[in-house]
Amino acid sequence: MAIPESDIDPYSDEVLENPHPSHALLRDLGPVVRLSRYGVYGIARYAEVRAVLEDWQSFSSARGVGIEDFSKVKPWRLPSVVLETDPPLHDRTRGVQSRVLSPLALSALKEPFARAAEDLVTRLLDLREFDAVPELAEAYPLTVFPDAMGMPRENRRFLLPYGDMVFNSFGPRNANFEAAVRDAAPVIEWVQAQSRRENLAPRGFGAEIHAAADRGELTEEEAPQVVRSVLTAGVDTTVSAIGAMLHCLARFPDQYDRVRAEPRLARNAFEEAVRHESPVQTFFRTTTRPAAIGGETIGEGEKVLMFLGSANRDPRRWERPDDYDVTRRTAGHVGFGAGIHACVGMALARLEGEAVLSALLSRVARIEIAGEVRRRRNNTLRGFASLPVRLVPA
Ligand code: OVM
To answer: 376: alpha, beta or left, given left = phi > 0 and alpha = psi -120 to 50?
Structure first.
């Protein structure tokens, strides 16, 4: 058997706008496909994506989780000491984040997050019709997340262009990347500065990460890098996930009714939105040795592109994969990844998603699309540039 080839360009405007037809083609070609445009392998089926995520020994992150191989091309920014590492370094840095962001550590945030969501929904009900991207999907994380980090009030919006740039950088150096770098240039220094101890409040995730350095768990140099990692990964992702949830609930009104009838489903409704949309669409690994994928073997030093969004809609794994179903058993989806690099902030993301939806349920009878929905173009993140909605009061 030979590994099939495809000239599909996952980073073309057309595919980024609507990746689903290309994902289906890639899945049907085989368990692993050579993507001829970029000289990398692509994996679009659920079983193989999951297997690669769970085998860090063969599929390394230390040579970058974007298209560039750090052993061949100098990384364009200081590599993340969490995302772009393997054990043992990864386990030490990740361990600090993991304790700071654990479900138990976050339980104190449930109340303030709920209150912030209720306040926001009160204001949005006054507006009635608005663009849900800036007014809700961005507004909510941009309030609660920097508060929880211990950041000052000023310039919080700077986190958005920074994240946009980094998530673009995992793909090729195309027009999306170039534009994002231009937009983010003025905020890069600010983000670095926010990661330093003296700019973080004495209580919050930032201070807790720096405290780990006092205990010898991180070096003084690593601590701000571990904070930077959280700042980079913590906003654009939840913006996209909350946007996806609103889009789903507006397009599947019976599902919104279902959650209203049983508010305990709010958590799963958010989770299902993460599966359905897969805000983080792709990440790469690099093979450390010849590695088997679905019966084929690829050599050492190859870049492997995992299509998380495709895995999450693979009909080999999911029934009616394109339906948004708030009662679906979502366990096993790879929207947050899997294995040692699985999203360390997922409990925080879930808390945000659940708080937003719970606040909507009691006051809003229906969410309607009220204008032209426009997708945002990013090499890694799937989200919206604009999502006009109308809230029908309960
Ligand atoms: C990091 C980082 C950046 C972007 C995404 C991410 C999804 C992590 O700097 O560690 O995880």
So the answer is: beta
Q: How many angstroms separate the CA atoms of 240 and 332, rounded?
A: 20
Which residue out of 229, 274, 278 has the highest number of ligand 1 atoms within 8 Å of its CB and is therefore the one to mutate? 229
Rounded distance between C-alpha atoms, residue 106 and residue 35, angstroms: 41
Beta-carbon contacts of residue 358 (< 8 Å; ≥ 6 apart): 114, 117, 263, 266
In the chain (394 residues long), the average pLDDT of successive 10-residue segments reads 94 98 98 98 98 98 98 96 98 98 96 98 98 98 98 97 98 98 97 98 98 98 98 98 98 98 98 98 98 96 99 99 98 98 98 98 97 98 98 97
Residues in the chain, overall count: 394
Residues with CB under 6 A from ligand 1: 80, 82-83, 166, 229, 232-233, 280
Q: Is the dihedral of CA 159, 389, 349, 17 positive or negative?
A: negative
Which helix or strand (DSSP H or E) is residue 362 part of? helix 346-363
User: For atom 10 of ligand 1, which residue has the closest CA?
Assistant: 229
The DSSP code for 313 is: T
CA–CA dist 88, 223 (Å, integer): 16
Pocket test for ligand 1, best of 65, 83, 308, 380 (most atoms within 8 A of CB): 83
Q: What atom of ligand 1 comes closest to residue 280's alpha carbon?
A: 7
Distance CA 270, CA 366 (A): 17
Q: What is the pLDDT of residue 1?
A: 65
Distance from the alpha carbon of residue 80 to the mean position of ligand 1, in angstroms: 7
Q: Which residues, in sequence order, are bridge partners of residue 33?
A: 42
pLDDT at position 322 is: 98
Query: For residue 88, is the peptide bond before it cis, meaning its omega torsion is within 30 degrees of 0?
Result: yes
